[in-house]
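> call design_seq(struct)
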């Protein structure tokens, strides 16, 4: 575990403040759920909870089906990281961080489609030179918990109605799966 040199006291209600620097680095926002673990050495570990992360096996299978149907690479993210990939090497993308541009799309619950009118390409994953063709937020119980997207192939194709509807349907489906 990485030492930070920051010490915080627990208040009379059992609360501890996570320093702003750590919250910013780990992208922990107000209201974000955290999992609390203990280990055999007596350490208490806080980890960001990803509700969609629990569906990663299912999301991977769903991404594989979308890849076979569309022929384009498919990526599923929680609010911070890639959790499922189909059509690209998994090592290239899994656990990579979502870009600030993708986080902003999710935060504002916006869909994205690269068309003739869209001049700016969306790079959804940090450190990966792949651009988004279509993206839709995954909303469960009124909260944004991730996104699903089709990445551009090597030809730089524009988004068509088929891809837009596939991803919109997929995001709604995954959102409902999380509610059950």
């Amino acid at each position: 575990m990485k030492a930070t040199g920051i010490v915080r006291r627990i208040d009379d209600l059992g609360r501890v403040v996570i320093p702003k620097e750590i919250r910013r680095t780990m992208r922990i926002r107000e209201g974000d759920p955290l999992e609390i673990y203990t280990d055999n050495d007596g350490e208490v570990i806080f980890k960001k909870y990803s509700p969609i992360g629990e569906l990663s096996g299912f999301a991977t299978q769903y991404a594989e089906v979308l890849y076979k149907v569309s022929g384009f690479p498919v990526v599923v993210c929680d609010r911070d990281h890639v959790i499922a990939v189909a059509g690209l090497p998994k090592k290239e993308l899994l656990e990579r961080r979502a870009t600030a541009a993708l986080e902003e799309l999710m935060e504002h619950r916006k869909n994205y489609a690269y068309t003739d009118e869209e001049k700016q390409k969306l790079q959804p994953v940090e450190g990966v030179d792949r651009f988004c063709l279509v993206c839709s937020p995954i909303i469960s119980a009124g909260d944004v918990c991730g996104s699903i997207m089709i990445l551009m192939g090597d030809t730089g194709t524009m988004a068509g109605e088929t891809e837009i509807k596939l991803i919109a349907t997929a995001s709604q489906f995954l959102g409902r799966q999380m509610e059950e």
